[in-house]
Amino acid sequence: MRWLLSLVFSIQIYAMMALMAVWFTPQVFFRREAAYDAVQTWCRWVRWSAERMLGLRTVIRGTVPTGEVLIAAKHQSFLDIILIVSAVPRPKFIMKRELLWAPILGWYAIRIGCVPVHRGRRGQAIQQMLADVETGRALPGQLIIYPQGTRVAPGAAMPYKPGTGALYSQLGQTCVPAATNVGLFWPRRGVLRRPGLAVVEFLPPIPPGLPLPEFMARLESEVETASDDLMAEAGFRPGRG
């Protein structure tokens, strides 16, 4: 029964995406702000319907960043993207180039200023993004990067990649770490969604100017510790699920 409800939920959120695209897309052609309205409205719909259909509540903890900052977030599933986009005013991501081909999502991602990168060419993409920022062509907002580079299942270990450190050093911006436990309820693969309390927590900002090794060590320690705490709060213990 839970699997069937999860399937119905998945169908309706993508049906709603299509309906919202019919309404918002003509506006987006003429007004970029409408792209933010569209993606945030859809993300809030997903959160609202997940609670009512599945018993999956979602919460944002900590101080939501609103200025020109770098957000370095734990990534467990599509749900943590949805929560962050629903909360911050001007979200933009460093994202896999393949997502450009996703119906509706790809075009909207470009309109809100996301930076598509090739796997294996992340350094080049970062340099191009930095050039865009310096020449004023990049849209202002909260730049979101996933330091591990992909979705990581609860309890799994994966190293933090150097792209986040490069951005932190060269942009000279405050970095806001973000922890999550969403993978316990909305896995990175499959249809089944579980009831519970899914959380994204914005942690205390890391100021600019730290030596790169110190920044990376602090970022990884704080994000992983806070994510482990959120998963433990939900009853997860590694090896037991």
Task: Give the termini distance in whole angstroms.
Answer: 21 Å
Task: Give me the number of helical elements.
Answer: 7
Structural class of the helix and strand makeup? alpha/beta
Amount of beta strand: 5-15%
The CATH class turns out to be Alpha Beta
Strand order across the biggest sheet? Answer: 1-7-6-2-5-3-4
Overview of this protein structure:
Helix 1 (2-30) packs antiparallel against helix 2, helix 2 (33-54) packs across helix 3 (78-87) and helix 6 (163-171) crosses helix 7 (212-233). The chain has 241 residues and is α/β, with parallel strands linked by helices. The chain contains seven helices and seven strands. A seven-stranded mixed beta sheet has the order 1-7-6-2-5-3-4, with helices on both faces. It has a single domain (57-233), classed as Glycerol-3-phosphate (1)-acyltransferase.
